[in-house]
Records
---
Amino acid sequence: MEWEWLSAQVAHLPATEAPLSADVGLVRTDGMLWIYDVGAAPAAAAEVNALPGKKTVVLSHFHPDHMGNLEQVEYEAFYGGAFTCKKAGDGIVVSRELFLPEGVHLFPLPSVHAKGCIGMEYAGYAFLGDALYPAVKAGQAVYNVSLLAQQLQVLKGLRAEWFLVSHNRPFAHKRDEVLARLEALYAKRVPGQTYLPAERD
């Protein structure tokens, strides 16, 4: 397992299937290493701990493949949504946008995939975890129409040119392409509809 660099300051450890472990993001700033999700694979924890310098962790959400290594990695502090911090028994709750001195932007990101998702934006890149994924209702992949509208509003407010999506290849997606796909899906809604199928023929 090796870091894949997207820029001089932004990298990630690719997700794995066995064990199931999410992508682990990395942002290097002058005074801190920002780790976005810690994965669940032992190799991911080892790679994070091998990085020299102080670390702050940001957890996208509470699913084990994203936060399973939290007790195994070394960090100064961690940020997450209220439900994630409750699950972890610790953490700084992100309930609104935070613009931190290092140039890191943390923000709540509405999602049908998991409640309390948090995104992290830095220097043209936005780590989104699994927030863009649908939920499964009665065996069908669906989006909640209201949450999709809220998600689009947040995504449109970001400056990042690249959206980084966990468990996905490629990991980096052009912002405009992601927005166009989600807007096209949202345009298919009908009055009174609560859930929108993720795919339509």
Note: The radius of gyration is 16 Å.
---
Amino acid sequence: MTSPARRPSRVAKLPPRERILDAAEELFQSEGIRRVGVQAIADKAETTKMAIYRHFETKDELVAEWLRIVAADYQAAFDRVEAEHPGRPGEQILGVARFIADGLPAVSHRGCPFINSIAELPDRSHPGRQVIEQHKERQTRRLVGLCAQAGLADPEQAAAEITFVLEGAQVSTQNGSIDRTGERLMRTVQGIVDRYRPSGGTSAQTTP
């Protein structure tokens, strides 16, 4: 969950649409979706409200597009670990867990964008809420697929337990209730993989 170099150095070089999204990300993450108005986004992007509405019909659509970008980063993590560990689904599962663990320091400062956003979007018809739900469904399918490929008994249950750990670690980091969350996350996911692996299987070891 890394981000490129932020303001102010790169913003002036961005095209208008990307500049708007960059400003929206900064404000939505730091202040929340509901508290941020279109004018505040325009000011931070050094543009106008009219320009924003040329690119995004409504603020809700701007929120949804920002969340699509965040979701794409998570989906890219699955693609990356697949490329790094071809034919080794157990290592891929741990690679996804490492991606989450490595992103926990940012969560401690700003919170998980999905957790923060879904709390502000109770209406399931909101386009941003739909982006989150679709992303979570896609992520679950990919994780179940990895568990099945790794030969884990009951792939759906194993994936559910891993998901509980990944999301719980983010919440615990955000509220400060648990220390060493990254280390604990990796150990717990490793334990789930080992527990569901058939007897005699090879453990995918990881270093916390």
Note: Residues 24 and 41 are 6 Å apart (CA to CA).
